[in-house]
Structure prediction request, 580 residues.
Amino acid sequence: MVCQDSTYRILYRDVDQMGVLYYSRYLDLFEMGRTEWARSQGFSYRDMEEVLGLMLPVTEAHCRYRDSLRFDEVAVVRTTIAAWSRTTIRYAFEVFEQESQRLCATGEVELACLTRENPRPHALPEAFLAIMRRVAADKEGRKRA
Amino acid sequence: MVCQDSTYRILYRDVDQMGVLYYSRYLDLFEMGRTEWARSQGFSYRDMEEVLGLMLPVTEAHCRYRDSLRFDEVAVVRTTIAAWSRTTIRYAFEVFEQESQRLCATGEVELACLTRENPRPHALPEAFLAIMRRVAADKEGRKRA
Amino acid sequence: MVCQDSTYRILYRDVDQMGVLYYSRYLDLFEMGRTEWARSQGFSYRDMEEVLGLMLPVTEAHCRYRDSLRFDEVAVVRTTIAAWSRTTIRYAFEVFEQESQRLCATGEVELACLTRENPRPHALPEAFLAIMRRVAADKEGRKRA
Amino acid sequence: MVCQDSTYRILYRDVDQMGVLYYSRYLDLFEMGRTEWARSQGFSYRDMEEVLGLMLPVTEAHCRYRDSLRFDEVAVVRTTIAAWSRTTIRYAFEVFEQESQRLCATGEVELACLTRENPRPHALPEAFLAIMRRVAADKEGRKRA
Prediction:
């Protein structure tokens, strides 16, 4: 339950003339990863904006590139929670090529919860914080096991 | 005054593994072209949305690809008005490579004016229609000359 | 066998500030559609380039926009063959929103087969032409049925 | 000579439904910045690939987001060299909004020089290393001044 794998097949539009996935596209994969992660936990980003009037802009992104992904290969994005507070969340990502399982990139992205109108910091939705607590408890449980 | 040239230098991110500008990027260039065209006529898309509460979604796009643009080359987008009505506008584009002046693509994009809330058709802003009339008169004048 | 459905969930990165899928992204969806179509017929674009030394640049693209796709909705791209010759292929696409089945866009893309080095027209790979003939026969069969 | 400013006007395609420049686009701006920086120093990335058979893939990217850029605003990307070795180069970037001069993001990108065929580490081109030495000397000079 703590980690979530999402897949994406690399299109021609995603690679550059070196024939490999362009470096900023990994951040797009990270977005796919964290949206799928939230959905797998029963939480919808869309509702957060539309129903709760909150948004989650990125405050920091980091990516380390280790190997390349090519046209028609399938990227697997493995998403976990690296850290969280009442108003922020930090995701960690690993990107693999599906067939060979070679590790292509690792990264982290931090987001902060803001009100949508007149943006200012706001607590993450309670449903989201409940997921964080459950995930953290799960981590603790695994450490003790 | 009738046509407007905008330039964009092709980045690594814009080309695919054939080493040429990816086909959907031409539509991005067309957006640059029509925004610059409007600005050159004293009209701001941004104001239209924010001040007038209108939007201009694309209803049709067409592109014919003739030659390729490569990394580090400069694309020149030449924008003109192909047709217009009280609620729609149709732009025509030619994309050249700056140095050789070779023609790389031609295209057309049609947009329709809608209200931003509860979208339904709406007349283009009067300031915009005034530009259309001026441009059309200019065209007529050139035909007679 | 004649038509192929591919799906893609709309990311935040894909929508513009009107909150809808940006118009050039439909051409990216079309690429996904035609690559998946070819794969479903047992043909790999990747092999064509790497093994056969051929490429398939787009010569013409057209899209008519009918309705919008929003963040987190799933686009279904339905791909069929509209026409083909010994050196060209023309795909037709319909894009639906998965849940409501509303039609959001229709389009066509034509590609021409070229040699990769010193690009000049070349017959499509025999394996690809065999698929075209099978699909065309299938169409004929359906017309007669 | 040490720093270089490049500008880019934000298109509709670049913003997301929060109405601000999408987070991965900053990495695209960084590419524009470092390409322009190299050109301003008399060095062409294109030649490096085509003439010297070398390439410069990104090995690490980092971005801290401070404020947002909106549609039609002009981004100014300020590029400097943060560090370099015989086979790697690390650029630092600041992104401002042109009119207000507000700082929107800071970042760093590291690239490593590889041979294009059978990629393995290779010294940066001598012309490029000469620029690095000149820039470093310039920095020293400014420190002493």
